[in-house]
Design brief:
- It is a single chain.
- Helix 1 crosses helix 8.
- The chain has about 210 residues and is an alpha/beta fold.
- The chain is built from 8 helices and 5 strands; from the N terminus they run βαβααβααβααβα.
- Bound molecules: P1-(5'-adenosyl)P5-(5'-thymidyl)pentaphosphate.
- The site of P1-(5'-adenosyl)P5-(5'-thymidyl)pentaphosphate has 27 residues, from helix 1, helix 4, helix 6 and helix 8.
Length: about 210
């Protein structure tokens, strides 16, 4: 694949501000005349959104089914939406991607990282995000923010211990590559967005 657009992913535990800051990123890209789309995982396609509904609001889902459904949605998303956009030079902003699988299904559900790496390789080969913004905050802060907004879905109903493992897995993974920008999401929104803007400017400089 000849990739031309930049691929940005936003990661973090529940309620840390991903959706809020994606709106900020979209506005920043528009102001800088950068053609882009924003999308989300699980979801982003008709199949992916159906899987999301089953994953978050359906009945019982086994851990193995959950892992495979995340990657099934991602395979469709990559083929139908992400890769075509990148190939046309369109930047893609994605709310969660495979780092979430390493954090939730790996850290949270204890799937071996080798199993997830194998599926990652099968589904996206060597395609990786160019920039991953990891919004990091103590679990209690994100949960309190998210609770103000909507009722819990199936995964949000997990324990604080589960989400602490997820947070730790995100942080460990962020040390393995320089594509991550780890931002303290317990700061004010203005401070968080100043840091995000710095990361976007660096990516734009590297791209030009
Ligand atoms: N999942 C996903 C997996 O298990 N494996 C996978 O591979 C993938 C891809 C998806 C679920 O699926 C799981 C993870 C998730 O459980 P989701 O909707 O993407 O669900 O994830 P959530 O984390 O549930 O998303 P939320 O929409 O709940 O949270 P956000 O987007 O992080 O938070 P946001 O922006 O809505 O902000 C929450 C509130 O906080 C305020 C906002 O105004 C808002 O009211 N806020 C701040 N307030 C003060 N200071 C700040 N800095 C603030 N930032 C935001």
């Amino acid at each position: 694949m000849s990739k031309k657009g930049q691929f940005i992913t936003i990661e973090g535990t529940e309620g840390v501000g991903k959706s809020t800051n994606i709106a900020f990123i979209e506005q920043w890209l528009s102001e800088n005349n950068i053609q882009h789309i924003s999308t989300r995982e699980p979801g982003g396609t008709e199949l992916g959104e159906s899987l999301r509904q089953l994953l978050l609001h359906g009945g019982e889902v086994s851990d193995k089914a959950e892992l495979l459904m995340m990657f099934a949605a991602r395979a469709q998303h990559l083929q139908q939406k992400i890769k075509p956009a990148l190939e046309q030079g369109i930047w893609v902003v994605c709310d969660r991607f495979t780092d979430s699988t390493f954090a939730y299904q790996g850290g949270g559900r204890h799937f071996p990282l080798e199993t997830i790496s194998m599926l990652e390789n099968l589904v996206h080969g060597d395609l990786q995000p160019d920039l991953t913004i990891l919004l990091d905050a103590p679990i209690e802060i994100g949960m309190a923010r998210a609770a103000k907004r909507s009722a819990s879905d199936r995964i949000e109903a997990e324990s604080v211990a589960f989400f602490n493992r997820v947070r730790e897995a995100f942080l460990q993974r962020s040390q393995q590559s320089n594509r991550y920008s780890v931002i303290d999401a317990s700061q004010s929104l203005a401070e968080v967005q100043l840091s995000i803007e710095g990361s976007l400017k660096a990516l734009l400089r590297a791209d030009s």
